[in-house]
Amino acid sequence: MIMMYLLIAIFAYLLGSIPFGLLLTQFAGLGDIRAIGSGNIGATNVLRTGRKGLAAATLLLDGGKGWLAVAWIEAYNHGGVALAALCVVLGHLFPLWLWFKGGKGVATGLGVFFALAWPIGAIACAAWLLTALLLRFSSLSALVAYASAPVSAWFVTHDWKMAVLTALIAALVYWKHSPNIKRLLDGTEPRIGKKAAG
Description:
Elements: H1 2-16, H2 20-27, H3 43-47, H4 52-76, H5 81-93, H6 106-116, H7 118-135, H8 138-157, H9 160-176, H10 178-186
């Protein structure tokens, strides 16, 4: 049993640690995405290259790996789903290949939410889109989306374990957004489409 859970954790972590944003921009001849804009490997920073297609691909692939890790384990072992959900997000946040300096987990976490229960992911995406349209801050949109997840998880599933799991993932995303939160409070956070300071 211990070996099975260890394998689930390793599988999910390694899947989550694939840096699609970095790989896609390098294959496209754009250099190292970490030297552009905010230095992040996620879709928002890829968008700063001006390549919307690459940004969309990064978003889908990062979300896809979150969905796949959970859906695959759920299909074969329901007991390891929570572990897979956490480890795939941790893999994206702290990838071994990039000296544990990864992305912020937004797309990957959304993929996890869709796999856990699609309404949780749909509500989080709707919250992101509405906030982005109204206020034009990618980071704030992510924070609002992730704040909605534990609440919607409870109302959708009525399962306190699901609410706790989504809250843990949200806490990780909030922690990785701590510089953005500071800039939001200071009024220096760049809006969507503007070059990031860091």
